[in-house]
Fold each of these.
Amino acid sequence: MITFNKENKTFKLDTPSTSYVFGIEDDFGYLVHYYYGKKIKGDNVRYLAITDKNFLPCENKREKMTFMDCTAFEYSTKGVGDFRTPAISVKNEIGAAACEFAYVSHEIKKGKKTLCKLPSTFADENDCDVLEITLVDKCLDLRLVLVYGVFNDFDVITRSVRVENMGAKPVILDRVLSASLDLDQKEYELITLFGTWARERTIERKPLRHGYQGVASMRGITSAQEHPFLALVTPGTTQTQGEVYAMNFVYSGNFEAGVYLNQFSMPRMTMGINSETFEWKLNPTEVFESPETVMIYSSEGLGKMTRTFHDLYRNHLIRSPYKNKKRPILINNWEATYFDFNTEKLLSIAREAAKTGIEMLVMDDGWFGKRNDDNSSLGDWIVNEEKLPGGLKYLVDEVNKLGLKFGIWMEPEMVCPDSDLYRAHPDWAIAIPGREAGLCRNQYVLDITRAEVLEYVWNAIKNVMDSANIEYVKWDMNRPLADIASLSLPADRMGEFFHRYVLSVYELQRRLTDSYPELLLENCSSGGGRFDPGMLFFSPQIWCSDDTDAMERLHIQEGTAIVYPLSSMGAHVSDCPNHVLGRSTDFETRGHVALAGTFGYELDITKISEEERNMIPKQVEMYHKFNDLVREGDYYRLMSARENGYMDSWMVKSKDDNEVLVTYVSVVNRANEKPVRIFLQGLDPDKIYTNQETGESYGGDILMNAGIVAEKLWGDHKSRLVHFKVQ
Ligand code: GLA
């Protein structure tokens, strides 16, 4: 709910358990932030921000700098005395960077539309109210609209901005972040997700120190290395208690996410497009739209934050028809064959898979051009008939005859120097004229900001899609962007490249999902380098990591699931010894870990041991039994092997509190230790839960307060599921 109190000129944004309050100050019309936290009844919290009226510029021009540098602003600006991280910076025609926005008007609407060209959350009239505040910088003739989405059922506030040039001259936007949030002087710790290839989204937590600290990507994608998520928590915050202020960015390109702790220990959280690689020339009448930042406040620890993100994304971000549906269990041939396959090999996998209940064959990299390794052919999306005689149609029909769906891998944004496409259009690869562009995995990135290149890529995708019954696409992206220049952009617009690139990726994915509405799209980028909310808008699932080792996956999936729903985490059972690190784990454990995601296989089913092959039908049954719960339920993190070194555990509970699935993985067995107790969370204390295997029943209060006792398992890397139902 959004209210505006005319008397004290205060806006109040209420979600079920939070309040966010700010107001208009000074004759000038600054927007000043007062409060964000637990829900409060009144709105008279102005005293929190304006403690000394003498500092207001209208009262005292002498001390404007003092006011600018110590006031909590709703959206910070550069160049006029606020020396903390600015949210916006604008250069005028002489190159001077300064702006200052004054309140003009506001509008409150019901329902939330998506942004124009960018992915964003959406909601109908009952679910979300939107506040748009218009401010103006008179010197620049620049209009700034702050957009707030306030959800009625979730503790979520979304933020984005629009900048409109009302003047007669162009201006240069050299920084337009989506959100800036000035918080109270409390002690905080900062949580971020760092990583690398095969080790994405590792949770990192450290005390907040003075000055600026943050994370940022300059790779053109969100990346495995950095993640557009940030949380400030009060010390001692756990899954179940403590205060959490979290931000996540609905964007798939260069971002920055940081906190500046100023001289008075007031933190400013900021999130938006990375200014280091961004500049935008805004001509008269043009409008620039920023991506969206999602903000969540929880006074009940990290678990509540996580479940709020999950509910929001499942209901108000992912659009695919698959969002509430069970995904077909797929078998992907990447780790099974790499580039060494042909129709017969794929069909032999499909035949064996069909016997076990697997539902879809996904043909990964290597089916097109002359691609027999990763040195050639990206860009030539023509079937290699030497490998696949009869083409895609024949293969797909045969797979379909076996009762399996068919899915395909593509990396549409790329071109290899050794490709017909590159030989015909060398200038389509991103490069700076006169400078040799660097390769990565022997490939260049296509300049899809150019209309003719984008059309080529779209037609290539469309031709593949129309050539056979393709029901799933794995859209990959295997290198960062560098040597940036576009032949279509003049010098004064070259700084727009990265953002235009992301807009073009979105345009292609929009066309794909609009033209083939039933398609199941899975995004991927060298594993989990494009796991972000922007991608989730188009694909209900994203490949989590190329590291499919069950033990490593515990950390990767823990870090991913802190923000993203289990239904979105691409997770497969792969062969052992694991291809990334040579570790062997039980087939059963691999299944239990993959069950926490989309679930599938990535192995040569014709070559694994008979014993393991015989276990697949049971795992398939397990998936069908539990996937509704895993996909739609509430996720609780119970123990973290990352923290304790030996035991990992999580549970999923149905929304009606009547069914619970607990998974625990004993990562390292320990001699002569008492069995581990695992304390369940979020149950109805008054309900009686029955263990579906043993038939024993316990009250929800007992399971939460006394816990369950984990079975002592012989050896390392062992796991168990415990399934409770209310009878
Ligand atoms: C990336 C993906 C893998 C696989 C290969 C194919 O690394 O993450 O799953 O598709 O590309 O080249």
Amino acid sequence: MVVVGDWGFQNRIHKIIKPKSGRCVMLAIDHGYFGNIPGQLKCFEDMTPLFEYADALMLTRGMLRNCVPTELDIPIVLRVSAGSSMLKELSNEEINVSIEDAIRLNVSAVTCSIFIGGEYEKQTLMNLSKLVNEGNTYGIPTLAVTAVGREMVRDARYLGMASRMAAEMGATFVKTYYCEDFEEVTSICPAPIVIAGGKKTPERDALQMAKNAIDAGAVGVDMGRNIFQSDKPIGMIQAVRAIVHKKASVEEAFEIYKNGPVGL
Ligand code: 5RP
């Protein structure tokens, strides 16, 4: 794993990517700008039981302040980019949270999206550069999210290039989408990679995707909808954990999901 920076920087990244397994299960709840988030909206006030199974939460400032109890001991990866929604051009983002507020919120990392090939590609790359510069100044790691536009192909060539660019620009770790031939993505990216879950799919398929990604060199997942929109969110996150941290098979993990409680 590539780790730069001094004690504070390294300590923060170790809180997210667990040194024992070198892996992590992040729970993403930064979906407001996607629009369609059934499940999350209905239950977000009661999501605390789910949080304890996540190695880190990836979320926005408002979700953190409103939905995460301050006494919870969990690393926070704060999305600090905004300015667009599904209704407009998604790549038209800027940094919307100051590094001072991120530090005040005691975050373990900050994150923004980069849209390679998007209309505002350069702006998003400069957003990432700003985070890396500020993060290096204050000891805060940066997660780069290789977001894709509606028209973009999610293949290994594209996602590999986007992930590699993020790493070359100084991102501490990279979040991208799973695709066929995922080894081609991980093999050219010198920073650790976590995969997004993407749209809700049947639980077994989501677990298979997590397994494939780990086998292909990802260090973990940053999954949202496939966990919080599941009928058994706690079983699902435990199942994902078993794959990521314990090398469980998809069948073993699926059993864990099935044995989980319905709802939260
Ligand atoms: C989008 C994001 C989301 O956090 C990401 O999509 C993860 O959530 P999901 O697993 O629901 O896709 O960063 O750019």
